[in-house]
Amino acid sequence: MLSIGTKAPEFELNSTPDQKLKLSELLGKNVIMAFYPADWSPVCSDQMALYNEMLKLFTKHNAQLIGISVDSKWSHLAFNQSRKLHFPLLADFEPKGKVAKLYNVYDEVEGESMRALYVLDDKGVIRWNYLSPVGINPGADGILDALEKLNHQ
Amino acid sequence: MSSHLIPAVNSNDHIMGDHKAAVELLEYGDYQCPYCGQAYPIIKAVQKKLKAGLRFVFRNFPLSEVHPYAFNAAVAAEAAALQGKFWEMHDVIYEHQSRLTPEALFAYAKKIGLELDRFSEDIQKESLSERVESDFESGVRSGVNGTPGLFINGLKYNGPWGEEDLLEQLRSRLK
Fold this sequence. Notes:
Helix content of chain B: 40-55%
Strand content of chain B: 5-15%
CATH superfamily of chain B: Glutaredoxin
Distance between the termini of chain B: 28 Å
Number of domains of chain B: 1
Largest sheet of chain B: 5 strands, mixed
Radius of gyration of chain A: 14 Å
CATH superfamily of chain A: Glutaredoxin
CATH class of chain B: Alpha Beta
Order of helices and strands of chain B: EEHEHHHHHEEH
CATH topology of chain B: Glutaredoxin
Mean pLDDT of chain A: 94
Number of domains of chain A: 1
Shape of chain B: globular
CATH class of chain A: Alpha Beta
CATH architecture of chain B: 3-Layer(aba) Sandwich
Helix content of chain A: 25-40%
Strand order of the largest sheet of chain B: 1-3-2-4-5
Radius of gyration of chain B: 15 Å
Order of helices and strands of chain A: EEEHHEHEHEEEEH
Strand order of the largest sheet of chain A: 5-4-3-8-9
Low-confidence stretches of chain B: none
Oligomer: heterodimer
C-alpha cells in the first residue's frame, strides 16, 4: 500500500453514469477511500451496507466516504439503488483497476481490487491505511480511530 | 482491528443471567436480520444447557437501510425495558421476525402485557433512539462488521455459531 504521509495520487472516475468525481474536489474534507473487490456480496455482513449506516458518524468527523471497485458504473448504479447507499461508488472500470493499481491494492490474479482502506486528511495526504484479508469485512473501528486522531492534531 | 468490547458490559446493558456466571455471551443484533433470527433459538438452547454458567447480553446493531423495520423494533424493545419487559419483547420480536410493522409491534406489546399508553409514549422518546444509536456506535468501535456480532467474555468471536460449535466454545471457557 502507499505509505502514511504520501500525497494521495489524483484520479477521476465515474460516480454515476453521467457524473465524474475527481479526488481533488474533496480537498478540505477528510476522505475515507474504501477499495473493495465487488458489488453484490451478501447483505448482512456487507462492508458497504455497514458503512452506509455510519455516514452520520463520518460526517461528524468532516469525512467523505467513497467506495471503489472495478465494477462498471451501471453495476454500481444498480447496487447503490438496491442497498440504498448514500455515498458515491466509483467505477474503476476502464482501464480496469487503474486507480487500484495507482494505490497498490490491485489483485492481478482475481482481476479485482483488494479490500483496502485509506484515510486522507483534508489536504489529501494519506494518514492511515489498512489491508484486510479479502474475505473479511474490516468493519469501521480502524477508520473511526484514524479520524479521531486527525481531528486531535 | 479491534477485537474487544468497548465499553465493557455494564449496568446499562440488558443482561440475562447471573452476574457471577463464568461465561458471558454478548450479541450485537438486528431484529430484522435473518441470521440473527437463526441465532435466536440457538442462543436459547445454549442458555438452557449452560444454565447458571452463562450470562447473555444483547446490544442493538440495526442496519436501518437494508432492514427498514429494524430500528423501530429495537426502540420497541427498549420501550418494553422501561416496563421491565425487555427480554419478553426481544423474544416475541425474534419469534415473529417476518412481521415488524408498527401495528405488529403494538400487537406484540399487548401480547406480553405492556401498558400500551405508556409504550406508545415511550417509543417517541429521543432517549431511546439515542440508546439504540449509541449501541450501534459501540458495536462499530468494538469491531462488529455484521450481525449477529458475537463476543465471548468480551472478546470478538468470529467462529461458526451453530449450536454444537457455540456450546463447545462456551463450555471450554467454563473449565
